Amino acid sequence: MNRPRTIRIFVVVGLIGAALIFAFRANRVQAPSAATGAAGFTVYPYLQNAGPTAMTIEYAAAAAGEGIVKFGPAGGALDQSVPAKLLDKAGSGNSAFFLYRARLTGLKPGSAYQYRVAHTPAGQPADESRAARFQTWPEKTDRATFVAYGDSRSNPDRHRVLTGFIAKRQADFILHTGDAVGDGEDQEWPPMFFDPLRDVLDHMPLFFTRGNHDGSAEQVARWFDFPGGKSWYSFDCGPVHVAMIDCYEDTPPNREWLDQDLAASKAVWKFVTYHEPTLYFGYHKSDFGLNTVLPIMEKHQVDFVVAGHAHLYGRFLPLRPRSGPAEHVMTFICTGGGGARLHPAANDALLAKADSVHHYCLFTIEGPKLTLEVFNHNNHHIDRLTVTKTDGRYDEAYLKLARPLAEVLKEQEQLPPAPPEEENEK
User: Fold this and answer.
1) Which pLDDT score is estimated for 347?
2) How many whole angstroms from its chain centre is CA 85?
3) What is residue 3's predicted lDDT score, i.e. its pLDDT?
């Protein structure tokens, strides 16, 4: 007799439960960032523009207010402070947030510091980030360790898997080869890029080069403190000189800057990083800088060229430049497997390794020896390379593997164009 009433009760309870679940999920999706919480940060504090005596700390907050970075030597008191300046308002409506930047200077080289960010919205109590640490670089050292990867857009869950492994590395910095987000929209940056990196960028600075999905140079410059304030920039860390290039600002003044920058560097190892590769690695047929940037890199004996754009891993055999000393070679690498939908890898005899897999690269330099290790989404090795260079000359074993760069360029001319980029990749 009571069965219909019981059924109605279960139906009502079930509908209420379903509504609560839907509301929870809707709220979770609409939130600007998984990091937003008690502290009210849309993007948790992250490190930029590192060096021996300075560090930049940036963050984004849901409400405008007064920001301050408190810091001091690791293990001591946070007895120093620097104000965080408001850079810009991002987004619109209820999803708007505010970008802040603070530059810490006069730091001691090769030293550990701790810091905390306090943000006080107008008329509200101060919100504080968790305490974190960073390490300044030594002024003189023959060692450096860094991570390189890119194209992390569109799949924050897979991106987060990789950053979980990266967080445990003792790296001096990260190189990101671009395409952090899908369309360059402000609302994409927190959940797609900064949230997966939350436990990395609080202690490991990242250097960025713009990809074709990241928006304009002006938009990107709000998120990253480029040394010198331009998207073509460089920095030194111990024995490594890195020049970061914006593929979409390939102008004569920028090329002149690159020529002078590489000419002035006395670093043992020279790296150049940009988004679209000069050489073809599979799927994306790309020849960025073929007649503009490539001759400059050959002229100044660049060692490694690291790009992204194709969602895969690829490493060419060492290539002999078309001009220059016979004891020098260049190694071209594509690391575009940071999370975006994978592309098929090329099968070519000129490639030392190619794999369609999500991954990150770890470079370790100890004086004349460079070791490259590449790890997949299970943190298993998929590639390893060890080379040495003494007085500008590579070891004989690596030189024996070298192929003429002209041979690669000739073969690239015969390749069919890449298929158009699909909309669902966004």
Assistant:
1) 87
2) 24
3) 42
Q: Average pLDDT per run of 10 along the chain, which is 426 residues long? A: 41 39 33 45 97 98 96 96 96 88 98 98 91 97 98 96 97 98 95 98 98 95 96 98 98 98 98 94 81 97 97 97 91 97 92 97 97 98 97 95 94 74 49
**What's the confidence (pLDDT) of residue 187?**
94
Residue 179 to residue 149: CA distance in whole angstroms: 10
> So what's the pLDDT on residue 35?
41
For the record, the structure tokens of 215 come out as 């928006």
Spans of all domains in the chain? 41-135, 143-425
CATH assignment of 41-135? Answer: 2.60.40.10
Domain 143-425 classified CATH 1.10.10.570? no
Residue in 342, 250, 330 with CA at minimum distance from that of residue 290: 250
